[in-house]
Design a protein that fits this description.
Blueprint: E1 4-9, E2 14-18, E3 31-36, E4 43-50, E5 62-67, H1 81-98, H2 103-108, E6 111-122, E7 131-141, E8 145-153, E9 159-171, E10 176-177, H3 182-190
Antiparallel strand pairs: 1-2, 1-4, 3-4, 5-7, 6-9, 7-8, 8-9, 9-10
Amino acid sequence: MNLYTCWVFSQKEVVLYRWPFFSSVKSKNSQRYTINDKELGYSEIFIVLDCGIKLQGLSKPFTWPVTVYYEDTDAGGVVYHSNYLKFFERARTEMLRSIGVSQQVLLEQNIGFVVRHMDIDFIQGARLDDSLQVITNIYELKRATLVFCQEIVNPDGKALCKAMVKVACIDNQKMKPKAMPTFILTELTNSDC
C-alpha cells in the first residue's frame, strides 16, 4: 500500500494536500516540483513522500524502545492488544518531548492532543521480556491535526503492529478543536526526529 502526500511550503504556514492534488506530480520520493497555480496565483514547491510499508513520512523516523513487562501480557504471556495503544501513545509523547514540546507546558496553556481516529493492524504478538522498537513518523500535518504512521518492530525489524493515528489539537477547557500554536508547527516541521 502506497500513500502519497504533497507538502506545500508557503510563506505563511505549512499546508498538506493528499495525492492527487496536482495531477502532474509523479510518485517519486523526495522530488521537488515548482508549479504555478491559477487559483493561488503564485509558485509553490511540492515534495512527494511515500508513507508505505517502511513508514516514510514527513519526518525522519523517531524510534523509542519498549521492553515487554509482565503487566503488559495476558494469561497466555502475549502482549494484550490494548497495550500496543499505550506503546504508541508513549512513543508519540516522547517524540514531541524530543523536539521540545512539553506536555506540562501544553496543559498550562489549556492545549491538549486527543486521538481522533486510529487504523491499527495487529500482525504478530510480542511476548514477556521482548525488546521492541516503536517507530513513529509524521505523515500529515494540518493546522489542528496530525497524522502519525507508527509501527512496533522486534529486534529483527519484523513488524508486529502498525497504526495510522489521527490526533487533534483541542482547547482543554472548551473541549473544541483548536489550531496548533505556531511554536509546535515550527518544531514539527523543522525537527530532526
